[in-house]
Amino acid sequence: MLLLQLDRLVYIDDSTSDSVVVIGGGVPPDWLSQPMRVRNLPTRLGSIDWTWEGGKMRVMVHGAKCRVRLGPAFRADTPLEIEYAHPH
Question: How far is the CA of 78 from the CAs of 10, 13, 33, 55, 88, in angstroms?
């Protein structure tokens, strides 16, 4: 159950040839009215931090560069800032 809940926040979509980090894939639209912050969620591509505030998504990937997209609750024109921090 815990893994399912974590997948609502961040998961890897392997349905295409290159893996994509999906942020908030299971977040319901009514949650978007409040700020959210997620820290240090492990994935096989590295750990992920993200912050939703003021209608903007900021994502930090602690690992290799990869594609990132937002889940279906987010509007297509949602501002998305992505940073990459390589682990030591």
Answer: 17, 20, 13, 7, 31
